[in-house]
Each structure stands twice: as C-alpha cells, then as structure tokens.
Amino acid sequence: MTYSKTENFDQNSRDIAKVCKALAHPARIAILKYLAEQKVCISGDITTEIPLSRTTVSQHLQELKNAGIIHGEISGTRVNYCLCKENVEMVKSLLNGFLENINKNTVECKK
Amino acid sequence: MTYSKTENFDQNSRDIAKVCKALAHPARIAILKYLAEQKVCISGDITTEIPLSRTTVSQHLQELKNAGIIHGEISGTRVNYCLCKENVEMVKSLLNGFLENINKNTVECKK
DNA sequence: GTTTTATGTCGCAAACATACGACATTACTA
DNA sequence: TAGTAATGTCGTATGTTTGCGACATAAAAC
Q1: Alpha-helical segments (H) within chain A
Q2: Which domains does chain B show, CATH number per domain?
Q3: What is the pLDDT of residues B12-55, one digit of tens each?
Q4: Which end of chain A is more exposed for a tag (fewer CB within 10 A), N or C?
Q5: How far is CA A60 from its chain centroid?
Q6: Separation of alpha carbons A43 and A46, rounded Å
Q7: What is the value of ipTM here, to two decimals?
Q8: Do A33 and B101 touch (CB under 8 A)?
Q9: A91 touches strand C (CB under 7 A)
Q10: Residues in chain A within 8 Å Cβ distance of B25
Q11: Residue A111 CB: number of other CB atoms within 10 A?
Q12: What count of other Cβ atoms lies within 10 Å of the Cβ of residue A88?
C-alpha cells in the first residue's frame, strides 16, 4: 500500500531521478572520477582506491552499470570497466536540459 | 558498525552526491519543474499537481529546501516557494564541472 | 472568540540502500 | 587436475527513505 509511486510521474522526470540516484553516493562519484583519471579502463582493483570492501565496491559498480554510465568488459578473470561515451553524454544532456529549464524562473534568495 | 562511511570521501564527491540525492526522486523533479513553470512562486497547493498526499509533498519540499535548491517565504498562512537563483546555478556548475571532467576519458560502448 | 485554511511535525509501516563476510564461479597456471 | 586469482552473488544486519494518517500551530475570516 505504501511506497513506490514512481510510476505516477512522467518518463522524463523518472529518467532524471534515476540518473541522479545512480550518482547519489560519494563512493560512486569517486569511482567515476577514478575511471576518468585512468588512461585505460581499469579492473576491479578499484577496491584499493576506495575505502570500502570489495563486495561493496562491486555492488556500486553494478549500480553504475545498471544506470548505463559504465560498461564492463570481461578479459580472462578480470573485468575492465570504462565510462561509456554515449551514455555519459546522454546523462549530460539530460541533466543540462533539466537544469537549463528550471533556471528560467528562479528568484534571488538572499538567505 | 555498518553503513554510512561517507566521511571517508572527499568534499567535492560528497557535495555532488548530496545534490544528486536531492534530485533522486521523480516527485522532487516534478515539483521543481512545476515551480519553474509558474510565473510567481507557488505555495503548497503543489499537492494538487502531484499524485501524493500533502504530508508527503511537504516532506519532499523540506528536502529540496535542505539541499538549498528552493526557498520558502511565509506569507500569512501560506508559504510561497520558489527556486533559488544562486543555488540552482551552483548546482548547475557543480554537476557540469563533474560531467565535463569525467567526459574526457570515455570509451565507445556499442553495448 | 470560534471556525476555517494552510502548513508543518510525529510516529509508524513498508520498501530500499549500504556494507560486508562467506560461498560460487571462472579462467589462467603450473 | 589441483591451485590461485579476480570476480560475482547470497544472506544478513543495520540504517535511510517514502508515504501517510493524526495531531499541532498559526494566521485570517467571520
């Protein structure tokens, strides 16, 4: 009865919320930054760069993969992760479009 | 013991994650869109525009307020909410900076 | 002063997210 | 084919979010 009424909102709002949800944890931001820093796609030894257990990092990677932001390519026992050009650009234009849109009717708030 | 190790990540990553968290629900996106549509700041009768109870909408408004994205001004029994120019722009540049940054080392993923 | 109107806050229940140890899987290596 | 290394998945404990009814508050209307 309670919870999860997301289907009552329009697709664009849900898309934006979904992308933001994927980015809504510092570990995932740190992972993305790390991937962006590397010349080559890097495997799951991201663990050594992130102060979390391997299991947890793996889960965060799955979430980023589900959101389509990263991509993992199997190579032997390793998995090479990388940022997906198309999807990162999709995210960029989705968020930019939204922020540009709401930026039209803002008000000065001294606060 | 478990959970919430966010303090182990750098400030920028936490800031980005925080903003994204505020945007990580379709209701909040819908609320922001609605606010952007209005000529004047609109009070909590946003309820009629959003398929959720007044209580829940009120809570989402609080979250957006906490994130500094909107601002509520009391006027009698009403509260006029509006988008904060400075903060919306702050969010824009924060997210743009990050996305621009990670966009440098992406890879074509046919998928 | 009582009623109405617009809001916010509390407390609860259900759903979801986070973190991790233990186990399973898969491929390379000797 | 046994051993190791890199990963993923499961189960569990705990914290957080979502959604709402019920109550509290406070200004305006009468």
Answers
A1: 11-22, 26-37, 54-66, 85-102
A2: 9-98 (1.10.10.10)
A3: 999 999 999 999 999 999 999 999 988 777 877 888 889 899 99
A4: N
A5: 9
A6: 7
A7: 0.89
A8: yes
A9: no
A10: 6, 17, 21
A11: 8
A12: 22
